[in-house]
Amino acid sequence: MNLHTPDAGTARVLGADSRRLGVGVFQRIGYVSENQELPLWMTVRQFMDYCRPMYPTWDAPFADKLLA
Predict the structure, then answer these.
(1) What is the pTM of this model?
(2) pLDDT of the residue at 30
């Protein structure tokens, strides 16, 4: 999910280099966090910006309301 930068090796996800995953690949990935915590370096807005491309029906006005 590119939440952590690899320090060695390579990996492919759905045929794509894991360091260069595009929106199309992210939309095909199911991800459940083990600890349900935001990465410490991300704000809530940054996390929502990260997640937005994975959801074609993202409701931007609702997301803005939640942030407010």
Answers:
(1) 0.49
(2) 79
